[in-house]
Amino acid sequence: MHTSFVPINLDDLKIVLQLFKEAAEKIAKMNINHWQYWKNPPKEKVDWVKEGLKSKEFYFIKNTNDELIGMIRILHEDRMYWGIQQEKALYIHSLVVREQFEGKGLGNIIINTVAEMAKNLNYLYLRLDADAKNPKLCKYYTKLGFDKVGEKTLPLSSYNLYQKEIRI
Q: Is 163 exposed, middle or buried (0-12, 13-18, 19+ CB in 10 A)?
């Protein structure tokens, strides 16, 4: 399936927050306590999203029929989770695939698209984090070739840090 990344504007904040809420509700159905704060996000999380929208880091993911299948945030540095890093890396956050599009391999397609971006920018790594309370997601990233290289504890949860070397 072909996908395209469409930059998200600050005007689309409500849609972004709705996508986070849908993801939180989907995760809750799996009895996983991950992202539940997105059902009624605290101010600091809304501010984090606004900052990313202003910095042009969020993208809607659409298919060939122009259907909204999800979103992603792509950063060139991630000091909150990773601190200051010497190696050039591209960072993935907030990857959401809407429930009706799950099971079609879209997560893998999206991550491979971002890996290709990283390769074209001559970055050495693709990095992301996963809430440690979501073992299914952690296993998924390992299956996609990411190595767990660390852990980070923040006020809302603890996260596993994953990276994948980009083959140039």
A: buried
Q: What strands lie across the sheet with 89-97, from one edge to the other?
A: 3-7, 58-63, 68-75, 89-97, 125-131, 157-165, 147-154
pLDDT band at 33 (very low <50, low <70, confident <90, very high): confident
Q: Please give the C-alpha separations between residue 79 and each of 9, 36, 84, 85, 155, in angstroms, as whole numbers.
A: 23, 23, 6, 8, 15
What is the b/e burial string over 73-106, where b = at least 16 CB atoms within 10 angstroms of the residue's CB?
bbbeebeebbeeeeeebbbbbbbbbbeebeeeeb
| pLDDT at position 83 | 93
- Measured between alpha carbons, how far apart are the two ends of the chain, in Å? 25
Q: For the residues 43-68, what does the mean pLDDT come to?
A: 95
Parallel, antiparallel or unpaired: strands 89-97 and 125-131: parallel
Distances (CA, A) of 163 to 17, 65, 111, 148: 27, 32, 12, 7
C-alpha to C-alpha distance for 162 and 144, rounded to whole angstroms: 11
